Amino acid sequence: MASGIIYAGLNGRIEVVTASAISAAKDAVELSINLIGVMCLWLGIMKIAEISGLIKLLSFLLQPFISLLFPSVPKNHPALGAIIMTISANMLGLGNAVTPLGIKAMQQLQTINPKKDTATPAMCTLLALCTTGFTLVPATIIALRSAAGSIDPTAIVGSTFIVSLVSTMFVLVIDRLCQVIFKR
Amino acid sequence: MLLELCEQLSVWVIPAILLIIPVIGYLRKVKVYEAFVDGAGEGFHTAIRILPCLVAMLVAISIFRASGAMEACIVFIAPLLNSLGIPSDLVPLAIMRPLSGSGSLGLTTELLNTYGPDSLVGQIASTVLASTDTTFYVLTVYFGAVAVNNPRYAPLVGLTGDIASFLASVYICQYLFSNNG
User: Fold this and answer.
1) Over the stretch A123-175, which tens digit does the pLDDT of each residue have?
2) What's the average model confidence in pLDDT over B120-147?
3) Do B121 and B90 touch, CB atoms closer than 8 A?
4) By the CB < 8 Å criterion, does A78 face chain B?
5) Residues 6+ apart with CB under 8 A from B130
6) Rounded to a whole number, what is the distance in Å from the CA of A79 to chain B's nearest CA?
7) How far is A78 from chain B (nearest CA, A)?
8) Distance CA A15, CA B125 (A)
9) Cα(B43)–Cα(A32) distance, rounded to whole angstroms?
């Protein structure tokens, strides 16, 4: 931000800064308001799944795999269920369902965080998985390619899968390395 | 065939979830409506808690873009990326991807229209967009929601991931698509 302001000042474009700052602030509010609706929808659905025992079942089935990625989370903790839901939504390419589920998972992880203002290793792992975004069905991009007149819009499904796989593996390795380096 | 399958899948997944979960809940004698409202209530507070964090992040990124500092960055690192075999038209996308979802969607649309979606640049741009998420948005929203101010090494890991998946997109697409086109 500072670099932007200084750069604009040096180039005689300082007035752009004010305009863009104000419009971005407005965008942020709009984004949050839009988020309220989807958040309520998915968290409501999640609650039903939680009470009916669906999430417990799912986390029981996938526990060995998830516990491997999140060794610091105690077994049978609700955070594991939320993490599984987040990762599955991500894989299916359910764009706007991922954020509410991911936040839910974060809040669950926060309950076992000893230092509330600092991220735990498990939180960082979850973030790493979400920012790489492992997607099996990139629906938005397929639609975009169709619209641009592609003869084979799904050609990128294969390459996306390989790239996601490679980068997810890579990120998990980096995450582990950081866990060791930043250990205090 | 694959196209149809993907289209059908992406259309059906959400309705299927919205049907199956309440039905199972009902069968297991959960008070479906009460449970939904209870869960949804949390959604409102969480979205409001994220708002200030989003304002801070979007304003910073927007100033970075509008001031021309981002272009300066692109000019600065373009030769470096070129020497790694990356087409210079993809450099703006590489910078934009972790910063702004709508920004990188716009850039990709532009690239698809300029080069054609089935060109190598088009394939790479699509793969980049599909295989990674907007790192700074995810960081802000997730940590903002739980009021964690010290993300420790998470941004570092996220950005390394972006670089890795960008490079992987370029090289894997070059390998997959340049033989037959």
Assistant:
1) 999 999 988 877 777 777 888 888 888 888 888 888 888 999 999 999 999 99
2) 91
3) yes
4) no
5) A135, A138, A140, A141, A156, A160
6) 14
7) 15
8) 33
9) 11
Q: In whole angstroms, what is the distance from residue B108 CA to residue B102 CA?
A: 10
Q: Residue B158 and residue B79: Cα distance in Å, rounded?
A: 24
Radius of gyration for the alpha carbons in chain B, expressed in angstroms and rounded = 21
Q: How far apart are CA A123 and CA A110, in angstroms?
A: 8
Are A151 and B118 in contact by the 8 Å Cβ rule? The answer is: yes
Q: Is A112's Cβ below 8 Å from some Cβ in B?
A: no
Amino acid letter, residue B164: A
Among A61, A59, A85, smallest CA distance to A74 is for A59
Tokens of A90: 């991500």
Asked if B62 and A23 touch (Cβ cutoff 8 Å), the reply is yes
Indicate yes or no: pTM above 0.95.
no
Nearest CA-CA partner of B66 in A102, A177, A17: A17
Q: Is B29 left (phi over 0), alpha (psi -120 to 50) or beta?
A: left
Question: Which phi and psi (to 5°) does residue A118 adopt?
Answer: -120, 140
Reduce the DSSP state of residue A135 to 3 states and report it.
Answer: coil
* Backbone Cα Rg of chain A: 20
Contact B43, A100 (CB under 8 A): yes
Distance CA A104, CA A97 (A): 11
Q: Which residues in A113-141 are b (16+ Cβ under 10 Å) and which e?
A: beeeeebbbbbbbbbbbbbbbbbebbbbb
Please check whether residue A72 touches B, CB under 8 A: no
Number of residues in chain A:
184
pLDDT in tens, B57-82: 888 888 888 888 888 888 888 888 88
Q: Which residue has the tokens 């230092």?
A: A115
Amino acid occupying residue B179: N
